[in-house]
Design goal:
The protein is α/β, with parallel strands linked by helices. The chain is built from 14 helices and 27 strands. Strands 1, 2, 10, 11, 12, 13, 14, 15, 16, 17, 18, 20, 21 and 22 form a 14-stranded mixed sheet that branches. Strands 4-3-5-6-7 form a five-stranded mixed sheet, covered by helices on one side. Strand 26, helix 14 and strand 27 form a beta-alpha-beta unit. The longest helix is centred in the N-terminal third of the chain and has 17 residues. The protein is globular.
């Protein structure tokens, strides 16, 4: 108790102040055409925080949010911060095995949802989870209380942590990024300064709220500036995007490259929409062909197209690059945002020369506290105060950062991080499969998609549909390999691990 009382005294650097300092009648949120002012968002968040405190202990424990982008999500987010708990956005499309693994790993005892997702959540949870259900207005509808809620101990690792974003990982070794209030506020301030975000901005959120980009670089950044956040409440199509921009006078949005391709392919539908309010577009999270982007740059002559680079471990943002007409560049991600430093280093941690390729390392107040309950994994990437990204890059003559490849095994599909080890764990648990090797295969629209090389167990026949069905029951659809290639063996390193340099092209 004494430790936590001290925690409360020093923990006043809190993202809740983002809306507390805008206690007025300006529009904070737009969702399904309904406006919510900063005053209303503040009041609803404080009310919900009182409910959270009644059902949790006086410690900074994680509280799950099982809601997509909306007023309800926003109220939940800030209420958790106000209650001095840790915000944990959950993917509402998780399969039960994935969901249970995350909940157990983070020891989540309370989850906030709403009418739209309540039934889906109930099918996923065990009996020892307390559920707070909100109505469409962001008010508490009911609490599904667990009277004998299990006790959890104070975890000093979560001190000052505001947000945990789950980055998947293997079944045995999940990685959850801990971002402190200082991490978030520093990154928010730097993005706002670099992009000149003001009270006049109205950003359209398209991406899921469990993405760091949507939550930090859009949601928090625009509320910090006193602007407006508009949530897109329909599936993404180019025409739905055009409609939202025109109808709500959107000034900017963030997206992944495949969405830009969709826009480029449907410019014929744009004529009936007034898009004059649009000032800039941020895109990143996957490879984007420079020639296609520059077609859009030419078409939208008054709109800035900003290529972004970052990762969850750096509170989502490291650098910005403004695309220019007639400049085709697939690799340039520009210069660092304020207060962030980048070094390109070789395998001995020495600085690389201009133009020389090495690993990108990052330093700044935006860099994560670490991976939750994974000290060993944190120490692998945090070396002498520098975050090792696993990405390969170089600095050009104009001092711009260029991305040339990835050292990590990660597969990035539509800006979603997919770890091959997780998929391999599922495949290898199937009776058909002896062993497997999952890799990222290039895809024109999605960036990368998972594919698998498999070795069939003796006495079994390869039955593709059975294997797909097996995966479907254990993995999100985006993680299911798009194809399976049968091989006699999978190459191993000297220590018995899969050789990630395995010559898969021999089979493809």
């Amino acid at each position: 108790t004494i430790i936590y009382n001290c925690y409360q005294v020093v923990s006043r650097l809190n993202v809740f102040k983002i809306i507390e300092e805008h206690n007025n009648f300006d529009t904070a949120l737009l969702y399904r055409g309904k406006k919510t002012t900063y005053k209303e968002l503040l009041e609803k968040s404080k009310k919900l925080s009182d409910v959270i405190n009644k059902h949790t202990e006086n410690i900074p424990e994680p509280v799950g949010v099982f809601i997509s982008g909306s007023l309800d999500f926003s109220v939940s987010f800030f209420s958790i911060a106000h209650a001095d708990k840790v915000i944990m956005p959950l993917n509402v499309n998780l399969k039960k095995a994935e969901f249970v693994r995350i909940i157990k790993y983070l020891d989540i005892r309370i989850i906030i949802t709403n009418d739209l997702f309540y039934d889906r959540l109930i099918k996923l949870i065990d009996n020892d989870i307390t559920v707070i259900c909100l109505n469409a207005d962001g008010d508490v509808k009911f609490v599904n209380d667990v009277t004998d809620m299990r006790h959890i101990e104070y975890n000093n690792e979560l001190k000052d942590v505001a947000l945990i974003l789950h980055t998947s990982g293997s079944l045995d070794s999940p990685k959850s990024v801990m971002l402190t209030h200082e991490n978030l506020l520093s990154c928010i301030h730097s993005i706002s300064e670099d992009l000149n975000i003001t009270q006049k901005n109205n950003t359209l959120i398209i991406l899921p709220m469990y993405y760091a980009s949507a939550t930090i670089s859009q949601f928090l950044t625009h509320l910090y500036a006193g602007g407006t956040v508009t949530f897109m409440d329909t599936i993404f199509t180019s025409e739905n995007l055009f409609y939202n921009i025109a109808n709500y006078k959107i000034t900017n949005f963030s997206c992944i490259p495949s969405m830009l391709s969709e826009v480029l392919n449907n410019l014929s539908k744009i004529e009936k929409y007034d898009l004059s309010s649009l000032k800039y577009v941020c895109f990143g999270g996957a490879f984007a062909a420079g020639n296609k982007v520059n077609e859009l740059v030419k078409y939208f002559s008054n709109v800035r197209f900003i290529r972004t680079y970052g990762l969850t471990e750096a509170s989502t943002r490291i650098s910005h690059y403004v695309e220019q007409p007639d400049v085709i560049n697939d690799t340039c991600v520009g210069k660092c945002i304020p207060n962030v430093k980048v070094r390109i280093v070789d395998k001995n941690e020495n600085d690389c020369r201009i133009g020389e390729i090495g690993e990108i390392t990052v330093k700044g107040p935006n860099v994560m506290k670490g991976y939750y309950m994974r000290t060993d994994e944190t120490e692998k990437v945090m070396i002498n105060g520098w975050l090792h990204t696993g990405d390969l890059g170089r600095i050009d003559e104009e001092n711009n950062l260029n991305i040339v490849g990835r050292r990590k095994n990660i597969i990035i599909r539509n800006a979603e991080n997919i770890y091959p080890e997780e998929i391999e764990g599922v495949l290898n648990s199937c009776p058909q499969i002896k062993e497997s090797f999952v890799y990222g295969e290039p895809h024109e629209l999605l960036g990368e998609v998972p594919a698998a090389i498999i070795v069939i167990n003796d006495g079994f026949e390869f039955k593709k549909q059975e294997l797909i069905n097996y995966c479907y029951n254990k993995l999100s659809s985006s993680k299911i390999p798009v194809k399976f290639i049968v091989a006699d063996k999978i190459e191993k390193t000297s220590n018995g691990k899969i050789d990630r340099g395995f010559r898969k092209e021999e089979f493809v």
